[in-house]
Design brief:
- The protein is built from 17 helices and 8 strands.
- By secondary structure, it is α+β, with helices and mostly antiparallel strands.
- It folds into 2 domains: 21-167, 60s Ribosomal Protein L30, Chain: A (2-Layer Sandwich); 173-418, 2-methylcitrate dehydratase PrpD.
- The strands form 2 sheets. A 6-stranded mixed beta sheet has the order 3-2-4-5-6-7.
- The radius of gyration is 21 Å and the shape is globular.
- The mean pLDDT is 93.
Length: 428
């Protein structure tokens, strides 16, 4: 394989497959607030947040991890400032204490933290400004959950990075293809990726187990196992859903993310692990299947962007479906058909914020991916010209990205308006 592309795949995996504690949007807010306090050098008297609509949408209804059930933007920011460790980035709230929780609840009852909607900015955009007396500090995060692009203290810029230039330094996505991903996964020296994949298996399996043992969220995973026939198809959906139940419910266990999302990290991994266990394959084959799932999901999600009205569980499920097809001996053509069959089915699923129902959407997306796998292995597929399906696998992936990035832009705005109570439904 081309060495540059080989190295690119490794670089992307190392950047993407990182542990995060809880839903990444409230964690990003907590991280920004913790970093701003660190720059200020003392406990602030208040926090002023300016966030993009997608950040507000994805924080509004989800439990902040290690926050004893507290939800929302203010809870995430205050807990980050009170007890967060900015040096731990996406695990910023790992070491919060009962005293930190008590102080956060006290401050939530005051005007300590305010948040305003920042319009006409990147979908992932956070500015956290803290102040104490005449002293101020602010941290700006754009495009990625830990990508700090600006730090100021008392009006002086301490650090600045152009997010556009940073994005241009990323991989050359035009060189990627499903065939190249398969070649990489089948030939890479596993010593180069073993620690990444071991972490994904260990952490994501652990939170799935927690979601099955305890009544988190809407208990989608537990319900599936209780009411559905005990098959690998059911278990694959239930394992992924249960992990999301726990994660959306504020479970304190970290997960290894994919494309900046914990739910996507759970979706690309847990169904693949379940099928590998069912088939009795060796650990090496599981590693290679996970590489396929992770990279195909990342490849698809790139065309959509970090946050949008498009539910990322769909692209993640297409990735896991592709890996399941590979585990069953499917060809590159079968794998491409699995991807297309998945997105032709659930490609219109909307993201209306991070919350308990994310687990149900994951279950639905994984269900669609497994059905897509069975169709493709029988030579059955949706044809070019049927909806967004194209005559080339890469074009189908790009068309899906166009729908998510461009076609659903206005949908994203209206979802946010509904969530913020800005729509009078009786007049519609």
């Amino acid at each position: 394989m081309n060495q540059m592309l080989h190295d690119t795949f490794l670089e992307v995996l190392r950047k993407e497959l990182i542990p995060a504690l809880g839903c990444t949007e409230p964690i990003a807010i907590a991280y920004a607030a913790a970093k701003a306090r660190q720059v200020l050098g003392e406990m602030p008297e208040g926090i002023r947040l300016r966030c993009s609509g997608n950040i507000i949408k994805n924080v509004k209804g989800v439990a902040v991890p290690n926050a004893d059930g507290m939800k929302g933007v203010a809870a995430a920011a205050i807990l980050g400032a009170v007890g967060g460790d900015a040096d731990r980035e996406l695990e910023v709230l790992q070491a919060v204490t009962p005293a930190h929780l008590e102080e956060t609840r006290r401050l939530l009852g005051s005007d300590f933290c305010t948040c305003s909607l920042q319009e006409n900015v990147a979908n992932l955009h956070i500015v956290a400004e803290v102040f104490c007396g005449e002293h101020t500090a602010s941290v700006t995060i754009i495009n990625r959950h830990t990508l700090i692009t600006r730090i100021e203290k008392n009006g002086k810029v301490l650090f600045r990075e152009d997010p556009v230039e940073q994005a241009e330094d990323g991989p050359d996505w035009d060189l990627w293809s499903v065939a190249d991903i398969l070649e990489f996964a089948e030939t890479v020296d596993l010593k180069e990726v073993k620690s990444l994949l071991d972490g994904q298996i260990e952490l994501n399996t652990a939170i799935s187990g927690a979601g099955l043992r305890r009544p988190f969220g809407a208990q989608i995973g537990r319900t599936l196992l209780e009411v559905c026939e005990d098959t690998v198809w059911t278990r694959a959906k239930a394992r992924a859903a249960a992990a999301s139940d726990a994660r959306m419910g504020g479970c304190s266990l970290p997960v290894v993310i994919n494309s900046g999302s914990g739910n996507q990290g759970l979706t690309v991994s847990l169904p693949v692990i379940e099928y590998a266990n069912h088939l009795g394959v060796c650990r090496e084959k599981l590693y290679r299947a996970l590489l396929i799932s992770n990279l195909i999901s990342i490849y698809q999600k790139h065309f959509i962007g970090s946050l949008s009205a498009f539910c990322g569980a769909v692209t993640a499920a297409a990735g896991c479906g592709a890996a399941i097809t590979w585990l069953h001996g499917g060809t590159c053509e079968n794998i491409c058909d699995t991807i297309a069959n998945t997105v032709a089915n659930v490609g219109g699923m909307v993201c209306d914020g991070a919350k308990a129902s994310c687990a149900a959407k994951i279950a639905s997306a994984v269900d669609a991916a497994i059905m897509a796998h069975h169709l493709s292995m029988r030579g059955l597929k949706f044809q070019p010209g049927e909806g967004i399906i194209q005559d080339d696998p890469q074009k189908t992936i790009q068309s899906l990205g166009y729908i998510g990035r461009v076609g659903m832009k206005s949908t994203d705005v209206e979802i946010l308006n509904l969530m913020l109570g800005n729509v009078d439904l009786e007049k519609q």
